[in-house]
Specification:
- The complex is a heterodimer of chains A (394) and B (512).
- Chain A is of the alpha/beta class and 394 residues long.
- In chain A, 48% of the residues lie in helices and 12% in strands.
- In chain A, the strands form two sheets. Chain A has a four-stranded parallel sheet, with helices on both faces.
- In chain A, helix 13 links the parallel strand 7 and strand 8.
- In chain A, helix 1 crosses helix 8 and helix 4 runs parallel beside helix 5.
- Chain A starts with 6 loop residues before the first helix and ends with a helix.
- Chain B is an alpha/beta fold and 512 residues long.
- Chain B has a four-stranded parallel sheet, sandwiched between helices. In chain B, strands 6-5-7-8 form a four-stranded parallel sheet.
- In chain B, helix 4 runs parallel beside helix 12.
- Chain B starts with 27 loop residues before the first helix and ends in a 19-residue tail after the last helix.
- Classes of the chains: A alpha/beta (394), B alpha/beta (512).
- The interface between A and B is large, with 56 and 49 residues.
Chain lengths: 394, 512
Amino acid sequence: MKDLKQIYQLETLLQEAHNDLVRQARDRGEIAIGSTCSLIPEPLVNLPGCFSVRLRAPRTGSIEMGTYYMTSIMCEACRAILERAIEGGYQFLDCMLTADSCAQMNRCVENMEHLKLCDREGFFVTYADVPMKSDETALRHYVRQMRQYVLEPLEKRFSIDTSDQALQKAVALHNRISGLLMEIGDFRREENPRITGYEFAVLCLSTYCCPKEPLIPLLEETLSELQSRQPDQHPTHRAKVVLAGSEIDDPELIRMIEEAGALVVADRFCLGSFPGREEIRLREGEDTLAGICRHYMESGQCPRFMNTDKIRERHRYMDSLARRFHADGIIYQQIKFCDYWGYERAYASRVMRDEYGYPVLSIDRPYAVGNAGQLRTRVQAFVESMEIKKLKRR
Amino acid sequence: MGKAMGSEPLGRFYSGKKAKKRREWRGLKDTWYDYVHWLGIWKTLIGFMLRISNLRAFFRYRWMVNYLAVPDFFDRHTEGLRGTQLRITRTALELVVTDMCKSMGVMFRADPALGNDKALNERLVVFDENMMSEIMNGFPNLKWVSVEVPAVYTCAMMAQDSLFYYLDKAQEYGIPNDVCPMPAAEFGVSLEDDYPRIGKCAIQCNTTCDGSLMGNGLMAARMGIPTFQLAVPIRHGEDSVQQYAAEEIRNAIAFIEEQTGETFDWNAFFASMKDFNQETAHLLEWYEVSRSPYPQFTDNSLSLYRYAVYMAAGGREKEFLRRDQKLTRLVMRGYERREPCAVKLRHRAITWGVQAAYYTAFAGWLTNCWGIVPLVDMLTLCSTREVNTEDPEKAIYDLAYLYEKMIMRSRSNGGYEVGVADLWRYCEYFHADMVIMYAHMGCKSMSGYHGLFEEEARRHGIHLVWATHGLMDARGVGRRDMRTEVNRYMRTVLREEPLDPSLEDFDDEQAW
């Protein structure tokens, strides 16, 4: 297929946490907020006058300093982010508004705070207690926490407008971005999709790591380009898969999977579009903040949600994605040492195989997949096994 | 060999195999005391076995065999002790054994595969292993049980290889081998269907860590009884979370009421919590003595006993309060007589991080070999706040606070203040010059502070000695490796000689 016009620019943006769009926003006087978890609702940290940057460590090399501070048994993503912070990669941040959701990421942020790795004047960190269940008690708690640890600091420290009107404006921006991505992502449902999983991941990831407003024209242009884009007559993929699991902040992993023959048609992982890029529908008469929190709590599919209903919901959610996107199989992946996904991957991969009948590949992987030859081999073998199953069915 | 502490080389008790007989001469009076109490343990165990359902449990559950090592457990935990110290340890730990036997007896009686007492089964509420039982103080007609405690937690303390089988089962299922072995072993037992299938309903909790929480989720699916997941706030040091914590406790109470048809009895609750408050007051007295130059009730005797008081008995079992009173008398007597708790108290230590379940006698080794006296461990340092016993509204908040400060989660959750900064405050409070830092290889919560611990220990002038271990899996790092780490520090950094050279290096890989 012909390259998408904007893809190179977006790929370039993803090469740095402190990228051109972030610089331009800073130059306009906007507040840069570091974020580490999807349970801090994006509209709250993308109010007029501020923008969020989901922390990543692109082009990671050595993580020795991160390993010294956090030991070698910790998640490599957390160590890499700490390493990048030690290198001075997040000096542009004005604050970090984080959730104490995953202990390892929390330790990473606490190290950043106590080692004073971001020395911009007035820099501060907050830690919110976010829900582990989805019910009305948890929602009330969530709302209180978001008010205290996100909205109030923004208002007090930076005079950011946190009124209902401002929140609604931020929701509108979020919905515009999400709507565009969903429309683009729907092309992946085609028999012969006109967009690859890698391309979509680049588009989607950019919306987590850059100020959102400047991305709208790029996404609009990409959408109109896709409407007339012709897919390859002879597609290179041999199977379609849903890719699920822990954070993927480097589209190279998806490129590698697709090179091995599995087209990623749905992205159900942290920093993917499922969940994360659905439209937020506010209820009539409900407080805007509560509505936003309700959306994130109810649509959240993080394994951190511990109640049995939510665990079962995650399986149904995966099934519905696989059906909707006509996937032949599912790949569950986790960054090594992730406790949440270590258990979820083991359990869900069995459930999806034994109870729902999907072929499942279950892998743990390093954070940086540059030299992951073994991973490629495993994906290739998985693709072959799916092909054999298809042939047998015929 | 003699009456005095340190009069014989203790390393000679380790032959490299499982001990069959092991008598330490402590002088006539102490040896007689120890021997009579050793017989008492056998009496308790034989009494337990005389019930048919308990006997059948030995053939039904493979983990039961580990309890044959209970007498050896006592030998290991009283090693080198004399006088008041010996009596304190025996007094505390023997009650834990009695209480465990009682609790297991209830489980096996209700177990459909053993006693099959259906009426009893209807009155059982199954609690998660790391979850304290105090909510049940308001349900005097119901019984609290934790099936994971005997199957996993205390098993791991009896024999170091007790959980290998279950850990392997969890890994065969697909659980990564880098997670904490405790929830992994719990899940392994569940996979093998080796828990008594009992209880009217269950309460689980986001207890110690992310792995524990996830393990519970998987187990809930296999238990087959209605289960309530209690979400206790992670940032438990913050005022902003207390309302939610209290609301969740109310939800848990409502769930038990709904499932069992019982009503929460505030009078019963307050009566038990009054005892609980008294138990806390005793603990604070022991702490005061531990701050002095003559600490009496220290590290593992204290910690193992307190786990039972704080988490399991929870004020409901009167015997614990009576035992507390007796312990306080012993502690005060030892203090007044200025009885030493070690041959030589060279270093006053705090143990931080979670201790190796397969080496709970490590603290005794530190004392006997190097004169490092672990005054208190991290897991014991939970809430000492009094629970309101008059006003239900305030009591709910106090109860919620208590649940937030459950053992382990009070430090592994909550962030830097409770995980790191508190350590230096406790060092100051207990006049400690050393921290034995348990580096549990599967514990991400504490490992994430590794560098900060090192830097801040230097700043505070505290000796920080790492002791790496695998919590319940001794195959990666064994007991000997833990000792070697300390030996190296003591010889190379502090240039000290062991008090008992026979303990510096010995083989106990095959021991219980």
